Sequence to fold (689 residues):
Amino acid sequence: MAEQEEFTDINGNPIQFSCQDFSPFCREFTVSSSKLSLLRVLMFTCTVWLLAYTGFYLTQNTAVLSAAIMVTLLGMLLHIHFVKVDHETLLIVGSLGVQLSSAYASGRESTTFIEMSRIKDIVINEAIHMQRIIYYLCILLKDHTEPDGVSSVVPLFQSSKPRLNCLVQVYRSCQEIIGQTP
Amino acid sequence: MGQKRRGNIRSPVSTPSDTHSSSEIPPDKNSSSTSSCHGYLQSGKHSICMVSDFFYPNMGGVESHIYQLSQCLIERGHKVVIVTHAYGERRGVRYLTNGLKVYYLPLQVMYNQSTATTCFHSLPLLRCVFVRERITVVHAHSSFSSMAHDALFHAKTMGLNTMFTDHSLFGFADLSSVLTNKLLTVSLCDTNHIVCVSYTSKENTVLRAALDPYIVSVIPNAVDPTDFTPDPGRRDDNKITIVVVSRLVYRKGIDLLGGIIPELCAKYPDLCFLIGGEGPKRLVLEEVREKYQLHERVRLLGALDHKDVRDVLVQGHIFLNTSLTEAFCMAIVEGASCGLQVVSTRVGGIPEVLPDELVTLCEPTVSSLCDGLEKVITRQREGKVPPPAAIHRQVQHLYTWRNVAERTEKVYDQACRQPVLPLPARLRRLRSHCGAVAGSIFSFVAVINFLFLLFLQWLYPSHLIDVAMDATGPGSHWGHGFGKEESKYTDAVRHDVADRRRFKCKK
Fold:
């Protein structure tokens, strides 16, 4: 809630980062990205409609226009339901586990929980993403067949993609909690 | 998904403003990429980016050159990152010994582990690497690597100092070499400094790329003498063994070897051949072995790991190198370092490599090589050869990587003092040095590349690219409690103290 520092995501859009301390062993980090902007919705609608009118002009078929309405509506629905994430939360409870949840613009929430016994570590990693090299935070899961191995990696804050200064804060306080649990 | 190392993150983070704040050097045109390197220039250290298509897990001379040179430069306090293309599943960012960072970029491989080049498509990723690692010098390796040329081109567009190391010799006569030489001319005409591995190679490069010889330095390759120590107990003194370790390709003169084997085997019944390496010319050797029934005496070992090479070398008495072209032959130094008698063809830079008493040089023909080998076999029989330990002692201080790194460092210092040509001067240079047609074409490409860079700077501004934490160099974070549980805990506590204030959040 109270954060003096300004955070942005990797594309330079401002994001809100807040950290709630419930107890020394339990902390919640929330990263909220900016709301769906009206301008972008208008741009999308205009593009679809311009294309539809060109199609209509060329073919003189009204089905093109009805298709355009369907595309706009469905596209918007799918976008707010499956793509646009309003905020992502990481709740870490020492000795119990980590809960990741993301709330979509439509209000849908998806939550996963990873118990502490499966977590090997939380680290900041580098990856090549869309012609750039970015830092991201991820959870390493233990491999049960190998004692030192890592079976898979769960990336955190996947849709908001905060920059390194934000990741470092989350990382440090996660390490603090993981470090306290034996 | 990249490597799952964590040590680099655990250590305290230096904010990029530390190095950005100083501004003694006037920012030049593309200041977004160069302003960030002041910290390095002031400390007298460089932030070096080695670019080549060839790096581990691929094996060869260029690969080990880059690796060893980087390790020695890290030891001298410079920051080094390596950029290469993705090898199969190996893509993303990896760390090697001593925090040597390697970027395996997902670029399409076209031919012979060399990436396809369009001059533009690699710019976004390379720019990202140069900016986030605050690179001051881009050092490209090998003229066969198109990625190296691309990187030189982009680095010049971004206003970084550039260096190039040439590892091979080329011809002038056929069409393909004419084309490659033209491309090399274009690529090297505005490069700050060029390094060749031998004087022969320097001559070749200066002629091919029409360069000013003053900007070309010669720094030989090196071998790690501790890796190649003699072990006379391992060899069988009842017979004489000739060892050949090379890739079995045309350039290495395997056809000559196919002519030597039957001739010498007929003359000397106690002669054996031990051949390590793999390649298309293996068929030639197998045919010879089949035809003359030499299965016990000619052993083909197939592909060797670098660590196994020494074990093969010490089993022999004579090391044979039949290369047809070679800029600097590392193999004969390795052979001599293991205490073997070396017989080699007199081609390229080979005569410069070893003192005359350690190597027998022959013309690249079957008869001359047979004569040379016979001479050495006779000497070996009579026991007139110096003991392996003596040869090793003589060779071990000739070529060391530390010496190579020291000399390369001087070249970096020199290259960094030179100005990077701004775009108009660069276009003039291209047109005056590379002929009217090629010059104009590549001037056009350079302009487009510059516009593309401006577009990228608008799309992903440099200030949005997070500066990477240094694993090597002056601000190195490598080795701060890396991988140890205990220090992980103390680190966490330290961060705790440092950050408690920042994390006091209201409920």
Notes: The longest strand of chain B covers residues 79-85. Confidence is low (pLDDT under 50) at residues 1-38, 481-507 of chain B.
